[in-house]
Design brief:
The protein is an alpha/beta fold and 270 residues long. It has 2 domains: 3-62, Helicase, Ruva Protein, domain 3 (Orthogonal Bundle), CATH 1.10.8; 83-266, Rossmann fold (3-Layer(aba) Sandwich), CATH 3.40.50. 37% of the residues lie in helices and 20% in strands. The protein has helices spanning 3-14, 21-33, 37-43, 53-61, 66-70, 94-104, 121-129, 142-151, 189-192, 208-217, 236-244; strands at 72-75, 78-81, 111-115, 134-139, 156-160, 171-176, 221-230, 249-254, 260-266. The strands form 2 sheets. A 7-stranded mixed beta sheet has the order 5-4-3-6-7-9-8, with helices on both faces. A two-stranded antiparallel sheet has the order 1-2. Helix 8 (142-151) links the parallel strand 4 (134-139) and strand 5. Helix 1 packs across helix 2 (21-33) and helix 2 crosses helix 3 (37-43). The protein is elongated and about 70 Å long. The N and C termini lie far apart (69 Å). 40% of the residues are buried. The mean pLDDT is 97.
């Protein structure tokens, strides 16, 4: 079977469980062929489909995330190695990088902190955006940090920790995508069955980790710095209240779907 025909057949099968069936099929085929997706679509459609492609499709039909199958995921301007034990980077989180760019304008942060770094997603994207910056990524999961260290660049350090506990340094930019899903929430099977629960769920109302974070951030933020925190659907008011109680001025930014996705936190100068 030619690549183009195998793609059509796979997309039809995947449509029963994925909203991005065609894209999934193309990413899996590109992985099987050993080329980038763009090269596959431009130059390889009339070749014979590789025999390993069918196994990849079967794994996806079992709800395994595409990123875990291929071992990589694009985010912002970089590509990350990802796999079991690490939260899969999502386009929604790029809203935090966009918010930071707006805040700094022509300036650049010198030191960046990523709390709950996972595979290094936000920190490494920010370091790619600001080539002179250095940064620190913190995570409570050794499994996630193993992926972060695989992705690391010389300007990034990664350390085991629980949010900002034990940190004495101040940072120009603090990024954070904490768990914010309510316990017992009905998540898609590829998320609930495969991605780490510790990176997803945060108590009965999804706010437990915000409650831990809010009192820690002011002492970690440098003058004129900014904190960009991801929030879940419908959490704008409830999460904002926790940070406002700690003296932060709060703005928000919407993701590409129009959902309030990022809290932008600043402190008034003394």
């Amino acid at each position: 079977m030619r690549v183009r025909d195998a793609l059509n057949a796979a997309a039809a099968r995947l449509a029963v469980m994925s909203d991005t069936a065609r894209l999934d099929a193309e990413l899996l085929m590109a992985h099987a062929v050993g080329v980038e997706r763009e090269a596959l679509l431009l130059h390889r459609l009339d070749e014979e489909a590789p025999p390993g492609f069918e196994l990849l499709v079967e794994r996806r039909l079992a709800h395994e995330p595409v990123a875990y199958i291929t071992g990589r995921r694009a985010f912002w301007t970089i590509e990350l190695a990802v796999g079991p034990g690490a939260l899969v980077p999502r386009p929604d989180s790029e809203t935090l990088i966009e918010a930071a760019i707006v805040h700094f304008g022509d300036r650049a942060p010198a030191r960046i902190l990523d709390l709950g770094t996972g595979p290094g997603t936000l920190l490494l994207a920010a370091l790619d955006q600001w080539p002179e910056a250095t940064g620190l990524g913190i995570d409570a999961s050794e499994a996630a940090l193993a992926w972060a260290r695989r992705n690391a660049v010389p300007r990034a350090q990664f350390r085991l920790g629980h949010w900002g506990e034990g940190l004495a340094e101040r940072f120009d930019l603090i990024l954070c995508n904490p768990p914010y899903v309510e316990a017992g929430a009905d998540l898609p099977a590829d998320v609930a069955r495969h991605e780490p629960a510790s990176a997803l769920y945060s108590g009965p109302d999804g706010l437990d980790d915000y409650r831990l974070l809010a009192p820690q951030l002011a002492r970690l933020l440098a003058p004129s710095g900014v904190v960009c925190v991801e929030i879940g659907v419908g959490q704008l008011i409830s999460a904002s209240a926790l940070f406002a109680a700690e003296g932060f001025t709060i703005e928000s930014r919407r993701d590409l779907r129009g959902i309030e996705r990022c809290l932008v936190l600043t402190l008034d100068p003394l």
